[in-house]
């Protein structure tokens, strides 16, 4: 019996030892890798720690997905390549807090934040951060560096890493970050997420950090303390689960995990408003994107011939918030397709807007086909065809009713040419004075 107990004990410890994985540099992402992850707001218990854990997070419900891209130096802006010449790669930073925990994709102070990494066989080190401040590239270089991992990484390994960085920008002031990261591999076992089941270790990082913004003689310190949890497994490139818990109640807990593509995550992400949804021909219509998160691209589709409308104000069908002018009355469907790094979604709204005839008190071509103008749109010479018109006058007006051109129509010619090459691109009214009615129709100069 004693021999059997000893044999079973040895077998148990052999199995347990096998589950205590060791993480090396080769288990983490390299330049040019792209890995999908999901973001969740599900409740999660981070208190389970120690050996031989079974972390069951299989009930996580994704609310969004994205793809983490690890850019080689040549793929990054020149300013960052110059400041972080030792980097292995850089990646867009959407998870870790930025200055004073106001960063990420929703930062008002900084936009397009990046983190730059030097990965070697012995360590995974944050060299610093990069972002744009009012369109000006800003590089915050850490000296000393912020070490996230030391390899090989095993259960109960621990180390501390101070980091300091600062940067100034002309006319705006300066920015600095100073802190300390205390790391410990505080658990090992199995983790279960919607992505799968893996042997793993967990590393806990307690970060104490003060971010300071300086304007002239005034300096504003912003505490940015947080605790970070990462579950790491062999050959998975990114943490299977990553949790950022800010020390302040002002910050938001952020959770993401490695995942597969889930199309259902993107359902109902695309959203927009049209204002006003009842307009006169010639009025400006505003389409406002209200989609979830920050799409990478937009595509607006209007169920109407291209000659019936124009994108204006420097916008087009790929703008986030385009503006349009419709030239023809009617009801129109509008479809918005938004694309994220991880997937896409679309929303179609039937009869999204109604366009009324121009309020000129005149009958429109829509109701009086007594003559025809072509080609429409036109870029030089406009032709008028009619077998019914007698000697009469014509006028060309803009949509406000301002007279731009006028002339006389000769009844001997059923088709007459009118030079409109001097008109700017846009929509115009062609008006004919003929008793007992007045007639108008619209044409477009392109």
Characterise the protein shown here.
The chain is mostly beta strands. It has 3 domains: 243 residues, no CATH class; 90 residues, Immunoglobulin-like (Sandwich), CATH 2.60.40.10; 74 residues, Immunoglobulin-like. The protein is built from 2 helices and 29 strands. The strands form 5 sheets. Strands 1, 2, 3, 4, 5, 6, 7, 8, 9, 10, 11, 12, 13 and 14 form a 14-stranded mixed β-sheet that branches. A 4-stranded antiparallel β-sheet has the order 15-17-20-19, with no helix packed on it. A hairpin with a 5-residue loop joins strand 25 and strand 26. 32% of the residues are buried.
In summary, what is this structure?
This protein has 446 residues and is mainly beta. It is built from two helices and 29 strands. A hairpin with a 2-residue loop joins strand 28 and strand 29.
């Amino acid at each position: 019996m004693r021999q059997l107990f000893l044999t079973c004990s040895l077998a148990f410890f052999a199995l347990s030892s096998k589950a205590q994985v060791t993480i090396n540099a080769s288990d983490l992402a390299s330049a040019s890798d792209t890995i999908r992850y999901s973001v969740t707001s599900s409740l999660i218990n981070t208190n389970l720690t120690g050996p031989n854990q079974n972390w069951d997070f299989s009930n996580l419900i994704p609310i969004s997905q994205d793809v983490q891209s690890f850019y080689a130096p040549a793929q990054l802006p020149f300013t960052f390549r110059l400041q972080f010449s030792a980097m292995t790669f850089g990646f867009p930073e959407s998870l870790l807090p930025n200055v004073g925990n106001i960063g990420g994709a929703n930062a008002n102070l900084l936009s397009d934040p990046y983190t730059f990494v030097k990965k070697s066989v012995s360590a995974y080190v944050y060299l610093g951060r990069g972002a744009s401040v009012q369109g000006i590239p800003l590089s915050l270089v850490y000296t000393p560096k912020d070490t996230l991992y030391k390899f090989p990484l095993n259960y109960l390994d621990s180390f501390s890493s101070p980091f300091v960085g600062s940067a100034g920008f002309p006319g705006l002031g300066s920015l600095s970050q100073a802190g300390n990261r205390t790391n410990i591999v505080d658990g090992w076992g199995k983790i279960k997420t919607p992505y799968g089941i893996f042997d793993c270790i967990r590393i806990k990082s307690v970060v104490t950090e003060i971010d300071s913004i300086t304007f002239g003689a005034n300096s504003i310190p912003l505490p940015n303390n947080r605790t970070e949890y990462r579950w790491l497994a062999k050959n998975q490139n990114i943490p299977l689960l990553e949790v950022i818990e800010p020390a302040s109640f002002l910050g938001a807990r952020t959770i993401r995990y490695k995942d597969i593509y889930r199309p259902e995550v993107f359902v109902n992400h695309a959203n927009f408003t049209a204002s006003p949804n009842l307009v006169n021909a010639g009025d400006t219509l505003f389409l406002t994107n209200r989609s979830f998160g920050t799409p990478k691209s937009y595509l607006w589709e209007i169920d109407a011939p291209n000659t019936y409308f124009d994108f204006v104000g420097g916008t087009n069908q790929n703008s986030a918030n385009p503006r349009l002018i419709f030239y023809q009355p009617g009801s129109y469907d509008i479809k918005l397709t938004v694309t994220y790094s991880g997937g896409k979604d679309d929303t179609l709204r039937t009869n999204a807007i109604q366009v009324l005839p121009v309020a000129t008190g005149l009958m429109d071509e829509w109701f009086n086909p007594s003559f025809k103008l072509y080609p429409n749109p036109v870029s030089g010479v406009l032709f008028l065809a009619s077998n019914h018109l007698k000697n009469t006058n014509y006028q060309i007006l803009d949509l406000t009713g301002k007279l731009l051109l006028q002339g006389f129509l000769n009844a001997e010619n059923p088709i007459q040419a009118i030079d409109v090459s001097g008109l700017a691109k846009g929509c115009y009214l062609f008006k004919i004075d003929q008793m007992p009615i007045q007639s108008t129709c619209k044409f477009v100069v392109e």
